[in-house]
Structure formats: C-alpha cells, structure tokens
Amino acid sequence: MNPPLNSRNASDSVFASFSIRSFRFQWFADVLSTWGFEMETLVLSWYILVETDSPVLMAAVGALRFCGTLFCPFAGVIADRFSLRQVMVWLRVVLTLLALVIIVSDVFGVLGPAIIFFVAAGTGLLRPAEQVIRNALIAETVPEGMLANAVGYSRATTDSARVVGALAGAGLLVAIGIAWAYAVITVMYLATIALTFKVTNRPPYARSPATPVKDLVTGFKYVHNDRLIRLMMWLALLANVTAFPLTHGLLPVVAREIYGLGEVGLASMLAVAAVGSLVGSLLVAGGLKTGRAETFMLIGMVGWHALVWIFVVLPPSTFAWVVLGVLGFASSAAMSTMAVSLLNHAKPAYRGRVMGVRMLAVYGLPVGLMLGGFLTEEFGVVTTLSWYGGIGLVLSVWAMIRWKALTEPRFVRQFD
Questions:
Q1: Looking at domain 14-203+211-415, which of 3.30.830.10, 3.20.20.150, 3.40.50.300, 1.20.1250.20 is its CATH number?
Q2: pLDDT band at residue 415 using 50, 70 and 90 as cut-offs
Q3: From CA 328, how far away is CA 274, in angstroms rounded?
C-alpha cells in the first residue's frame, strides 16, 4: 500500500512524490524509456541527414515520430476505461520490437531510409499514447498537493533524456555504429518493461454503458465547454507549431549550416537546451505550488518564443549558447506547468481524455517541422525560425491577455 497522502510534511518535501512506491517505479521506468527515445531520435535524424543530405527528409523523420498524436484521444478513452499498467506494458513491448528491426536490418545489410521511415512511423504511432497513459498514471498515483512535484520530476525525465540520450546516442553512433547503439536502446526498453510491472495496477473507473466512441465525443465536448482548458489546448498547439521545431527537428540544420558542427556538436547543442529544460523542470518540482502553475505557464510561453527569435538572429557565439539554455528553461516552465494546470483543473473521470486531446496538439509539431523544412530550403533556417519565433510571441501575448479576461470574477460568474 502507498503511504498516507495527506501528510503535510510529505507534501512540502522537495521529493514528496517519491514517498509513493508506485511513482518511484514509474519514474525510473519513464527515465529509461525517454532516454532510449531521445537516443533513437538523434540516431535516426542524423542517419537520414547524412544518407540523403535533405533537410526535408530529416524533418519528415521527425514528423513521423509524432504521427500517433491523431489517435491520442482514443488513448485517453483507454486511460479512463481500462487498467493503465497493462496498456503501458504492451505499448513498451511493441516499442522494443521496433528497435529490434533496426538491429536485424543493419546486421543483414538492408538498412536504408525506407526502414528508418518505417520504424519512425511505428514509434510515432505509439509514443504519444504512452505519454497520455503516463500522465494519467501520475494523476491517479499522487494527491493534488503533490501534483506539481510529480509532474515536474516526470518532465525532468524527458529533459534529462535530451542530455543523456543526445550525448549517448551520438557517442554510440560514432563509436560502435547504429546496430550496437540500438542494442543498448533495446536493453533499456526491456528494463523499462520490468519496472512497469511494479507500478500500481489501478482498477478502471466503473464503466458506463456508453460506447468508447460516445466516451470520446463526451471528452471532446468537455474540453470544448471548459474555456480555460480550451485555451490551454490552443497554447499547446501554438508551441508545437512555432517553438518546438527548433529543438525537435531543425536544430541539426542550424548546427551544420550556421555553426559548422557535426553529430557530436549537434548533441552538445541538444544537451545545452536540455540542461536548461531540466533546471526548469526541477524548479517546478521543487518549489512550484499547484495553484500558481497557470501564471508560470503563460510567462514561459511568451519568453520561449522571444528566445527562439533571439537565438536564431544572434551570430554564433558563447552568448548564443547561453540563450539556447535559457530557451530550454522557458520551454520546460511552459509545458510542465501546462500539464499541472490541465490535470489539476480536469475532473478525475475526464483526465485521460483531456490529456489525450492535449497530445493531439502535438500534431502541430510535424506540421511545423514539414513547413519549416520547406521554408528552410527556400528562405534559409534563420529566416524561417525568426518568423516562427515572432509569430509565436505575438500570439502568446494575446493568449496571456485572453487568460486574464477569462479568469476575471465577473466572467466566471457569467459562464459558470
């Protein structure tokens, strides 16, 4: 059994969520899973860029890895209706099998762009669903007072993965080749599956007589009718279209064409951004009160887009690398607090579906990546990303003004 959840001392601790046994196992499983994912991301992106010399194809690999966002609302229905642990185990088993495809293909000498695209697409179908289940598990495992703490540490797994995964992926690719790099990734995934079996297997909520499709429609209606949740969904879409493309797909072009760097240099740039994100996640985990999450979310969104613009217009310099790190910090401040706000604001029976719709916003990333790839080939990466940062900044400021209007007491009384 988990320890009592209402202890004030436990809730005030920097490591409050780790007092819960199930969260400890989930967190370590998530660490290995996200580390492996980030290693795959760097290895596959760099392989395609070197083999094809095409920013568009490289961006397409990044875009494919998020194609499953279209099905995340269904994953949210599953999260609200079924046992989450079993769903997570099966997702991770299939991800492990996909990693084995790369190893076997390289051993038999048939590895090429087509297989890379196949694995990227298969992984992309499953990864967003895994994130939905992961967030639902956190909300079920920890009490409301620990939610910011738990989400902050959960976000830190992703941020630490961008440091460890990027550096390890580049180092292994250079030192031992793609097959052995994927052998390490496969071992990490197997360990993740073993740890997931230790997570508390919460029974599903009492199932309604409604069909899954009707539950899905109900979830969309719930999101649409809640104005604050709806605005957060819009902000998530904006971030994925205009801010994430820099660090999640177009940074290899920046590294090679502006900074003249190879795969190790690219990994260093990814690591700098990830270190900033990690610091942001740890600060959210260590000091943020759940009720203040919305303020940090809005400030983070504005700062993040401003820093995207600043980074790409600066000439290569030490200061530009510092800006990249601060950019990572702002991104984490925005996205971790958005997850806290959504989980805290949504009714428990709708959390899975709310996070499923939230993951649907990630589909903006492949759109931003593909558009960015074409614009980069036409106008250059600096012009493309400065447009992204400027447009995102203007719309983020508008969202901040809109949020203030929606939370005015007069407006709340009118629409509650």
A1: 1.20.1250.20
A2: very low
A3: 6
